[in-house]
Design brief:
Rossmann fold; alpha/beta; 10 strands; binds 2-phosphoglycolic acid; seven-stranded parallel beta sheet
């Protein structure tokens, strides 16, 4: 079941989700429990991360009890690579918050044993008690995380080949398409669906058609975001552009 929440602009979407995260942290820390967040990269979650940083700076909210798991990482890119998702997260979120370094998890793009690294990642999520709230973007291929079509509902954290549409969409960050990796490690669809709450964010007309398909098409591996229809608590946060085909 997908709930739709229409926002007048990116900023109000960011504020609504940041407030939800802050409330969740407050409720869980009252009973001494950590809050486990699933995090995303790309341009879409940036206003949300800016808002979380503002809450830390201006409202003094602490993120010390937070444990994070990022969705994905490019194959072959390490923490010092400017386009690695590890570096993206450090610059745009982690270095501005007080999350203990040991609580931060991102698949290892430099691993020599992807299968083991991915199995360990699944185990770490289980050991943390599962993801309480997962932030998602959506790619124009219908990917969530880097689960490109076809991705089945029972897929787990694994190595994937990136779709050429995704490589082209992300090439702006790299400056040249030839520099965009061909593979990535990503949480699977089943891993994502196990999160207790999912907040997907999409902004702008370029996402309107894939948002429509994700909500209206029958769930299938051909459009992995359609699997979200099977989640009991999934909200799509949209601006007018992203909602225009609904
Ligand atoms: P974007 O990417 O936020 O840069 O549009 C979203 C995604 O590919 O999941």
């Amino acid at each position: 079941m997908i709930a739709i929440r229409l926002h007048p602009d990116k900023q109000s979407a960011a504020q609504a989700i940041a407030r939800e995260i802050a409330d969740l942290i407050a409720i869980r820390s009252e009973s001494g429990k950590p809050t486990v967040l699933g995090l995303a990269t790309g341009s879409t979650p940036l206003p949300l991360y800016a808002e979380l940083i503002r809450l830390r700076r201006e409202a003094g909210i602490s993120f010390r009890s937070v444990i994070t798991f990022n969705l994905d990482e490019y194959e072959g890119l390490g923490p010092t690579h400017p386009q690695s998702y590890r570096r993206f997260m450090e610059e745009n979120l982690f270095r501005h918050l007080d999350i203990p370094a040991a609580n931060i998890h991102i698949p290892d793009g430099l691993t020599k044993n992807a299968a083991q690294n991915c199995a360990d990642y699944e185990e770490a999520i289980r050991d943390a008690g599962g993801i309480d709230l997962q932030i998602l973007g959506i790619g124009r291929t219908g990917h969530i995380g880097f689960n490109e079509p076809p991705s089945s509902a029972d897929s787990r954290t694994r190595w994937v080949r990136l779709d050429e549409v995704t490589r082209r969409d992300n090439s702006a960050f790299f400056g040249d398409m030839s520099l965009v990796p061909h593979g990535a490690l990503t949480m699977g669809v089943a891993t994502i669906l196990q999160a207790r709450r999912i907040e997907l964010i999409a902004f702008g007309e370029a996402k309107a058609e894939i948002v429509r398909r994700a909500i209206k098409e029958a769930p299938s591996a051909g459009c992995p975001a359609t699997w979200l229809q099977r989640h009991p608590r999934c909200t799509f946060h949209l601006d007018a552009g992203a909602a225009q085909a609904l």
